[in-house]
Predict the structure of Adenosine deaminase.
Amino acid sequence: MSETVALRPEILTLPKVLLHDHLDGGLRPETIIEIARAEGYDGLPSYDPAELGRWFRDSADSGSLERYLETFDHSVAVMQTADALHRVASECAQDLAADGVVYAEVRYAPEQHLTGGLTLEEVVEAVNAGFRDGEKASGDRIVVRALLTAMRHAAKSTEIAQLVVRYRDDGVAGFDIAGAEAGYPPTRHLDAFEYLRRENAHFTIHAGEAFGLPSIWEAIQWCGAERLGHGVRIMDDITRDDDGATSLGRLASYVRDRRIPLEMCPSSNLQTGAADSFATHPITELKDLRFRVTINTDNRLMSGTSMSREMQLLVDEAGWTTAALRWATINAMKSAFLPFEERLALIEGVIKPGYDQH
Ligand SMILES: O=c1[nH]cnc2c1ncn2[C@H]1C[C@H](O)[C@@H](CO)O1
Ligand SMILES: [Zn+2]
């Protein structure tokens, strides 16, 4: 599933926008090993970088979101000090810039980084400083913003939402909930979403990945999500007649009519069982139906992937053209939680000129 793909330079150099990428799902294997050794964490399944990378990919290939999520125990374990968070965030920004990403929203759950004694604020400040460092080290070819995630099985969402508002002018663009979806509907966190709406703050919700339409419906109609993390199961509300004509149910129509962005993550979906192959992944049909589709990595370490790899596989296995990649990239930039003028500047000044060169 996580096959290695020789990336073509013409894909690597395209300007890219990434809205759905987990900080704790994108560490370099060698960094995990170095931090584990330095801090005395002896729980890693391997201390050889290539083998450890393979272990993450193979273990995440589980066919279930719950088992996929178990692999994060090891990455989160080495992200418990300010130095480690700073390093991981800086390397993240540099790796994304090297992949051609010009704007990224990278998410993580501050509540998962407290076992070394940091406060929530210290976690956010260490990650922010790391992103700034990584941007600079990349020659300012990338802009990175953080999304703060609350874990849906836990009870910290209001506290995390307050943290988003506190840091909204300082590197934090929005809020998210993640974790096991079945049994943990987004309405459990309604207080947090209502608070954010009163504060005019932005949020996305992981919905329609491991659970279907009710989760998407709650996320949009009860909670007010601006974007959907994955949302791939919106396909359950789209039917194809014998003569090939498609018809959209009320919810699918609403999502398309309102231009609600879908943060789609093809490789991740193959691993958790939400989709069967790149060739048949719903992202292509949803693109053809003109939903506001975006292309994302989710967890680069667990999927052995990158934006270039996701894009190249869509080209090679699902018939995407460069024009379609450009369309999805502009969709993503329009959907970012960045002020309008900054979005426009990146579209007109970076993305369109970048594509014009291809
Ligand atoms: O695809 C996902 N669905 C739900 N939760 C996820 C996914 N990828 C990562 N997470 C969880 C595990 C991480 O520890 C947490 C914060 O990044 O978010
Ligand atoms: Zn995710």
Residues 12-348 form a domain with the TIM Barrel fold (CATH 3.20.20.140).
